Amino acid sequence: MGAHIEWHCQHCGTMRIGRQFHVWGDPYEFACTVVKSAHAHSIEFVGGISENFCNILAERDAVKRELEKASIRFVHWTRIKKGEKTKISIKL
Predict the structure, then answer these.
(1) Which long-range contacts does 46-52 make (Cβ < 8 Å, 24+ apart)?
(2) Residue 72 sits in which domain range?
(3) What's the rounded Cα separation, in Å, for the pair 53 and 30?
(4) What's this model's pTM, rounded to 2 decimal places?
């Protein structure tokens, strides 16, 4: 089980998550762009895609550990379901 953020610069990167993901290069089941906001302790998930959302939820502890390493305390994303947008914010 694992999660990893490959930082492309100090503000954005790609997060990969997977049941068999341990190091960069391993197979993963979810990926999204992560963008640090102007508030250094906040991040936005952008453009996430997965074939099986349940697997992502199983990795939430690994994701939390990865975000804490980057001193992230708040996570935000927009969910679009059946044409309706919902803004979600979570404090870690």
Answers:
(1) 46/77, 48/77
(2) 2-91
(3) 8
(4) 0.79
DSSP assignment letter at 23 = S
- Among the listed residues 12, 55, 9, 59, the one whose alpha carbon sits nearest the alpha carbon of residue 33: 12
For 17-74, write each residue's pLDDT tens digit.
888 877 777 888 888 999 998 776 899 988 887 776 656 667 788 888 888 988 899 9
Residue 67 to residues 10, 63, 71, 81, Cα–Cα distance (Å) = 14, 6, 7, 25
Domain count across the chain: 1
Q: Which of 15, 30, 28 is nearest to 64 (CA)?
A: 15
CATH number of the domain encompassing residue 41: 3.40.630
